[in-house]
Amino acid sequence: MFGSGLARLILALNLITLAVLLIGMFGLNEWRRGLVDARIQYLNAQAQLVATVLYEFGATQGEPLPSIDPIESAQFLRADLIPVGQRARLYDIDGFLIADSYLVSDAVEVEALPPARGAGAPPPLEPNPEQAETRLTAARNALAAEVEAALTGAPQAGVRVNEVGAQVVSVSVPIRHVATVVGVLTLEADDFSEIVTAQRRALIPFALAAFAVSLLTAGLLYFWVVRPLLRLARAADLVRLQRARAISLPDLEDRKDEIGDLARALETMTAALNDRMVAIERFAADVSHEIKNPLTSIRSAVETLGLVKSDKDRKRLLDVLERDVWRADRLITDISNASRLDAELARDAPRPVALDRLLVDVVSIYDDDRGARVVLDRTDDQPVRVIGREGPFGQVFRNLIDNARSFSPANGTVQISLAHDATDDERPIVITVDDDGPGIPDENLETVFRRFYTSRPKGAAFGSNSGLGLSIARQIVEAHGGTLVAENRRNPNGEVRGARFIVRFPQV
Q1: How far apart are CA 133 and CA 150, in angstroms?
Q2: CA-to-CA distance for 38 and 34, rounded, in angstroms?
Q3: Helix or strand (DSSP H, E) at 362
Q4: For residues 463 and 127, what is the distance between their CA atoms, to the nearest angstrom?
Q5: Domains defined along the chain, listed by start
Q6: Is it the case that residue 416 has pLDDT exceeding 70?
């Protein structure tokens, strides 16, 4: 999945952006935790100091059951021992509140009034009494749990929500008379929001860094991915607009990623397109040349027909016309079949074909036909299946049989053999078509598969072969992953006994 350079680049850039954000979040969390711990240490030291003062200056009293003097302790809380922005509470041994710095202080908290409501503006939302009561109960329960834990002698510290819904840093330390816990001093600071604000401000550089990395990623992807794709798209569009055979692609073939693969694929595609257009032009030229031959003969016969005086010569010319018309019709039919072949192969989906049954059906067509006898020979009775299209397969074997019968004498035999070659792992299915004809010159064993190539057998009617049958057969066989070759059959003395066409197919 990530084997290519482009995929690794995209993954790396995204991981860098994610890493920046994660580092920022984890780093700021640690920084926030450090600020909270520092604040707790400060409050704890201050609370220990106040507790010591209360003990030293007589705020605790009583023997043998000491307790906190509520009047004296309130005076101490009223003094300047508690800084502004902090709240101190004193609880007795039973956890009841006996002094609160917010209640005994003379200081008046001053806050700015809210801005005046404009004309037509909706009134401010009133707080929900049920939510306020729930919040107040939760805050008191949290404070009570902290005080209860401190009464056991273990100092408590942490962050909790106060009665107004704000987060505060709170410490609770036990007040001792000698070694006896006589109460608890709770000291809380309401500047936690400032810590959070500072944390958010500290997050800004990481957010800016992540944004910069995102911009860099977008820029790299544009110049490294999007821009080359646009260049390839414009180059390919030139083919559509200019009807060009080939295009001048951007120099991207040396890239070792998907863009390079795409550029190489487009280069290969344009080369194949050019080859295909050249083949079409050559085919059109061959068709034009082949059709002109019978048409020229027909025109010559028609021009001569009016000048002929004898019935014998007129009949001979009419025979020539009939022969040339039949030849032209045969040629046009084969050309039409050849031109539709690619479309037919692309339209029909390949499926398993019972090749043995197909050969039986094809051979049966020639049972009552005149000419050389067609015989099917099988080495075994096992079913033979290949992946392909039944119609084109039938056309292959009909073309091969028709070609073999045209070169075989009337009393000859065209033998079809179906066998399995265990030595060939790729194409073990072998079909051979043997005839009793004169054979094929060694130099023409490959030429016979060219379009419009004909080697008329002795005594055969002129124009009976269009020269397209073997070419179409090979095209169909190769489209199904097979091979079609020609060779000569020879006797022990080396004499040619006929031609042999060998078809090989992969097995299902």
Answers
A1: 26
A2: 6
A3: helix 355-364
A4: 104
A5: 1-104+130-244 (3.30.450.20), 248-347 (1.10.287.130), 349-508 (3.30.565.10)
A6: yes
